[in-house]
Amino acid sequence: MAKNEEEVKNSVFGFGKSNDAFAKYFVGTSYLQPLAENAEAQAAVHNVSFEPGCRNNWHMHSVAQILVAVAGEGWYQAAGEPAKKMKPGDVVIVPPHTKHWHGATKDSWFAHLAIMVGKSQNDWFEPVSDEDYDQLN
Ligand code: MN
Asked: What does CATH list as the number for 5-136?
């Protein structure tokens, strides 16, 4: 069993299903568990889980995104900044229109809550190259 697989799959927030709708924006397989959505507030909370090595492509949201690490070990990186390792309890606020990516470390599963308030338009860019990703791990 890969590192932290049990913690991620048995998280109190649930594991969900493979995130097929967004698969084209990811390297590897991610899983999505919707937790709450409110149309009036235009707010949504999801638990996103990543298999080892899985990360999303560089992207930006038109509103802020809050990431709360739940289980395992992952990375968050904003363009032009060093990547930050995320462990359970770590919280990152991604400002609006900030190019960034998030995902698992190479050898560990990872899960984070993704919290968005406001109607977001998302722009997707290039994948995080294996070269750049492997340097982190
Ligand atoms: Mn994001």
From this structure: 2.60.120.10
